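Annex B. Sample input.
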Amino acid sequence: MSKKIVVLISGNGSNLQAIIDACEANKINGDVVAVISNKPQVYGLERAQNHDIVHAVVNHRDYDTREAYDAQLANVIDEHCPDLVVLAGFMRILTEAFVERFAGKMLNIHPSLLPKYQGLNTHQRAIDAGDTVHGVSVHFVTAQLDGGPVVLQAKVPVFDNDTSDDLAARVHEQEHRIYPLVVSWFVEGRLSMQSCNDKHEAFLDNSVLGEEGYSPN
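Annex B, continued. Sample output.
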């Protein structure tokens, strides 16, 4: 049975597009049933419209508190009865109540090799640190910012003369490869998160994943 996916965005939506394309190519046994943005007039909403996907704006500026915003956002998501909520460049720090509401069925993608460089400006931080390897992580969402268990990472080289834009472009290419793959694992029932005493672990094919997520080796 095809699974329902809701995608949250804040901007261009290139990862949204990668997931839509994978669904339409039957690489994901699911459909993006709704796209929700916290900002109006972003290109990701146009991507949804181009594929006849229901889309909406829940503008965070219309709410006095983070709690009020997250409560309304959760209500709008629930209208679509999703099996999976995907954060694709959704630039909001989520409240604990929101995270708990969708615990175990919410994924995020973060442009670093977690646990390194949680938060913003990851590409410049990797350059400033003199790293020779950088990358991207797909992880389950927990109340700890960028701290949920990692499912899959992809690495890219950092070259001597790289700018943050150079590195971002290299990372984006890998994002578009691994995010649809992880979404596919989830909707096929192969991927799950299990929690015990505030410890969260990702499981793929009933095997616990390590700190860096799945590794074919």
